[in-house]
Amino acid sequence: MSVPEKCAECSAILRELAESWRTDTEQMRASSADPVELRNEWLFSDDYQMRELYQKHYPKLMVARRKKTEHEILTGHQIILNGWRGAR
Ligand SMILES: [Zn+2]
């Protein structure tokens, strides 16, 4: 299954997801002095803390994901994320 090509919104959101994932990840790597501590922070988080961490480390991605969900609910489209992390 793939994104319907006629929907510009789906492609735009998909691009935004890939782009925000990339910039947020780079930002996080640039700002974290200690990768081990950062990993532990993720490993020992419960669901609530996990959401906080996402919000803190992936602010752009969270916005894009909210758009995706809204668009899917409004239109019934499905925005497929398989492989988008590798998209540049
Ligand atoms: Zn769409």
Please describe the biggest sheet, giving its number of strands, its sense, and whether it closes into a barrel. none
| Beta-strand proportion | under 5%
Count of separate DSSP helical elements: 4
Round the Cα radius of gyration to an integer and report it.
15 Å
Backbone shape: elongated
Strand tally is 0
Terminal Cα span: 20 Å
Bound molecules: zinc ion
Structural class determined from secondary elements: mainly alpha
Element order, helices and strands?
HHHH
Domains counted in the coordinates: how many? Answer: 1
Mean pLDDT: 85
Write up this protein.
- This protein is mostly helical and 88 residues long.
- It has one domain.
- Helices cover 69% and strands 0% of the residues.
- Helix 1 runs antiparallel to helix 4.
- The chain is elongated, with a radius of gyration of 15 Å.
- The model has no long low-confidence stretch (mean pLDDT 85).
- The chain binds zinc ion.
- Zinc ion (ZN) is lined by residues 7, 9-10, 71, 75, 77.
Q: Keywords, please?
A:
single chain; 88 residues; mainly alpha; 4 helices; 69% helix; elongated
